[in-house]
Amino acid sequence: MTENTTPYYKKQASYQDKRYTINKSNLIEPIIRHRIQDSLFYKQHLYLSNEATILPIIIEHVHYIGGTDSSNRPSTFISCLFRLLELEPSKEIIKTYLTQLDFNEFKYLTALTLIYIRLTYPSQEVYSIFDQYFQDFRKLRIKLKTPVFDSQKLPIHYKITFIDEWVDTLLVNERVIDLMLPRLIPRTTLVERGQLAPRQYYIDVSDEEEKDAGEEEKDAGEEEDNDYESDSD
Description:
Elements: H1 30-38, H2 40-46, H3 54-61, H4 76-87, H5 91-99, H6 107-120, H7 123-130, E1 139-149, E2 155-162, H8 163-172, E3 175-176, E4 179-180, H9 187-193, H10 205-227
Antiparallel strand pairs: 1-2, 3-4
Keywords: mRNA processing, mRNA splicing, Nucleus, Spliceosome
Region (Disordered): 202-233
Family: Belongs to the PRP38 family.
């Protein structure tokens, strides 16, 4: 009896991109989805809302970023995100949510729209839209799943972040606020294909020029000191 010398390769699990499913609300895991639908906030405010009526609900009730707490109760942020996934607004409406007619007054509406874009848009559009928010330094609050205690043993329930950090978190992390984010095509691949421009890093040129000028003056002063000869020499 001859042994089978054919090497055995473990089959890799196939990846199913849920961004292209018919029902976008399936992007949220079933347990969280059912808890949102059973919550009082969803039944009272979101159940019959549409693309227009959900805006005042977000502005009035969403004051922090969060998923579920330690008791698995859904936050208003993830509940409104779930409702947006159910409604599936058009790209024109999403753009209005994001820019707010260039007023940018409601930062949590911006943060909510950014994670909606991250969940549903193709990789190329995600990168091109997110690049515009790397210079947005508005503060955001993120609610911790379990509180941490400071040196005085007082509980801390929130941490401070900024919109540019929130954008970077959505691009880098695989899981955010209890949600598994769809995979992104690496930016370098899109750049090599010519589908996306290289990332632009925003550096304050004036500070760099002042620093270089200061170093040049320092070097010039050292050269003058070396060329100086005293009478006692």
